[in-house]
Amino acid sequence: MIVAVARYLGADLLRSQRFIVPVVVYLGVLAVLFGGDPGPPPVPWAATTFAIYPVSAWLAITITNTEDATQRHITVAAAGGWSRVAAGILLTCLLGDVMLVAFSVLRPLVPILTVTYQYPPTILLAAALAHLASAATGTAVGLLCARPVITRFGWSALTALVVLLITATQRWLPPVGTAVWALTDVPVPIAALAAYAALGLALAVLASAITITVGRHR
């Protein structure tokens, strides 16, 4: 049922085309950062690890708010409860995150024939983990700034902006700040990045659980 809900939400999102703006904005960021010589890895990925954070939050808010309040109650009733709908929303958001992570990690490889840098599997893994940590945390922020937690779009956007600005600029704060700066370390700490990715996913699951509690009381 959760997969069915995610499939329905994904189809609804595609029909609405609301995903286009955040995805195109992020692809534009990648084009600017990696349009020429991307530089030696993994340092170029630090910028996209930072950039994917607000974009994933934006995408999560978009996915969550695609349905209006009335349609969402109908979906909850058809799915059999808030927990299944929340799980479907989370799955849809994480699938979107995976897509953004794939774009981020693979984009620097496009000019690989014209540059002399090496991209060993460990570096690619480090980049994927760092982006996943940031994207999953962005999803957590987006879920907590969308319905049913915050019902008005203006407050939703303002709250998300404040949270993103405060948390993204703290290099000591896991998982986003620490993941970004970990990519500048030599050697890159794979184990630490894996822990940051796990923490980001845990935050996304926790945020989803909070939306279930709030949704049941509204």
Q: Mind sketching the topology for me?
A:
Elements lengths: L1 H15 L3 H14 L10 H21 L4 H11 L2 H25 L14 H24 L8 H16 L7 H7 L7 H27 L2
Task: Give your account of this protein's structure.
The structure is a single chain. By secondary structure, the protein is mainly alpha-helical. The chain has one domain (2-216). The chain contains nine helices and no strands. The protein has helices at residues 2-16, 20-33, 44-64, 69-79, 82-106, 121-144, 153-168, 176-182, 190-216. Helix 3 runs antiparallel to helix 8, helix 5 (82-106) runs antiparallel to helix 6 (121-144) and helix 5 (82-106) packs antiparallel against helix 9. The chain is elongated.
Q: Strand count, sense and closure of the main sheet? A: none
Radius of gyration: 18 Å
Work out the count of structural domains: 1
Spans where pLDDT lies below 50 across 5 or more residues: none
User: Structural class, from secondary structure content?
Assistant: mainly alpha
Q: How would you spell out the order of helices and strands?
A: HHHHHHHHH
Principal-axes shape call: elongated
Helix content: over 70%
How many alpha or pi helices? 9
Q: What gap, in angstroms, lies between the N and C termini?
A: 23 Å
In oligomeric terms, what are we looking at?
Answer: single chain
Mean pLDDT: 90
Number of strands: 0
How big a fraction of the residues is strand?
Answer: under 5%
